[in-house]
Design brief:
Blueprint: E1 14-19, E2 25-29, E3 35-38, E4 53-54, E5 58-63, E6 69-73, E7 78-81, E8 100-102, E9 113-118, E10 124-128, E11 131-136, E12 139-143, E13 152-156, E14 162-166
Antiparallel strand pairs: 1-2, 2-3, 3-4, 5-6, 6-7, 7-8, 9-10, 10-11, 11-12, 13-14
Length: 171
């Protein structure tokens, strides 16, 4: 039968979903300030009381081809968890050693980070308040865009190009 059913006790502010290699579906919930945790599913238990990552301003998720979980942050920068399958249901805070943080010190100058995309070459692209940032070979590379490009939408093209859209004004 075709039917929708509630997957489990998830928050009211689910902003994005991503599936890990181990089959877990992770979600970001901004209704309580910011939580990222797996959805309880068959074979993978989780609890609303035990989020995997707790930090203010978590928004977008991406699981890359190596299985790392990327998380954008409203306050600027990115968080990467190389092995989310090893976290279990532990609570992680902003200064936990399992969270790899990329910010202005690392060349991330984009301000608020909104969208994530992995291209055909494995590069991570981040749509931010100040433009487009590319992460490759452990290096964050800013891509200059006009100031009017805000709240970006990203799409990987068939030939490896990145298509960029903005909802704020005409490009």
């Amino acid at each position: 039968s075709k039917a929708f059913e509630l997957a489990g006790p998830v928050g009211r502010g689910v902003t994005t979903l991503a599936q890990a290699k181990d089959g877990r579906v992770w979600f970001a919930d901004d209704s309580k300030g910011g939580e990222v945790r797996p959805v309880p599913t068959v074979g993978h238990s989780s609890s609303a009381e035990d989020p995997a990552v707790v930090e203010d301003g978590l928004f977008e998720l991406l699981i890359d081809r190596e299985g790392a979980l990327w998380i954008t942050r409203y306050d600027s920068g990115l968080v990467r968890i190389r092995y989310p399958e090893k976290l279990g249901n532990r609570k992680l805070g902003p200064h936990d050693t399992d969270l790899e943080t990329f910010n202005q010190r690392d060349g991330f100058s984009g301000g608020f980070a909104y969208k994530l995309l992995e291209d055909h070459e494995g590069n991570i692209w981040v749509g931010c308040a100040k433009g487009l940032i590319q992460f490759r070979h452990n290096q964050v590379v800013p891509v200059s865009l006009p100031d009017r490009y805000q709240k970006l939408v990203l799409l990987a093209g068939a030939d490896g190009e990145i298509l960029i859209g903005t909802i704020n004004s005409k490009p």
